[in-house]
Amino acid sequence: MGSALAAHDHRFDPTAAGICLAFALLVQIGTNLANDYYDFVHGADTVARVGPRRAVESGLVPPEAMRRAMAAVLAAAFVVGLGLIHWGGLWMLAVGVASILCGIAYTGGPWPLGYHGLGDLLVFVFFGLVAVSITYFVQARRITEYVVLAGVPMGLLAANILLVNNYRDAETDAAAGKRTLVVRFGRRFARGQHAASLCLALGIPLIFLAGGFGAWCLLPLLAAPVAASHVRRLAAAGTPTELVALLGDTGKFIALYAALFAAGILL
Description:
By secondary structure, the chain is mostly helical.
């Protein structure tokens, strides 16, 4: 999305965009490794867990090996991210360090953010607002209101991935003291949050249209039937297997939405 908006404004820089992509992927991988390690340490991953296998909990990887892998990947992310200073200035260092520290603090540290119901907000900010805005900024050297606005649906849809995951794990999370929003407010609230996020995401292209972008920016609305089916599937899910399938499809939906929106902006 950030690169599509940069291209729309004739500011696309493939090198800067590529470094952003590499940094984002490494932080994502490092955060996943951190989650695997710290959820095991905190007792959130046990034999009672109903989701896909976790490497440390299942004994596939020793805890110390996972911790070293996490540190190595996040260190690589830091080194890669240093390349963005050339385009965005020294404050890119602060953005990069914040991204890495929050990736660890989601499940690690003395006060894990994900264990206190802040995971959704963290995902919305870093996967949405920061990811889109910084990718655009290092190419265009500025941030516009439409760039920030484009980060909103990406953050909401990324948070839906976390929501479906936490919806599935509500019982085991509660037993481990992991107070996600689903645990705090219940599954009915979670279903409302999920549906509202999808509706808001599908409404954002209408604001772009009203702001002078062409009708092509409405391409994401083609995904509305898929969004509706996801709302129904979450409400009807009765087994962990159904939620695991929906989790994967939620990830596919954000890719579909982003592809349609980016194509619409370019067209």
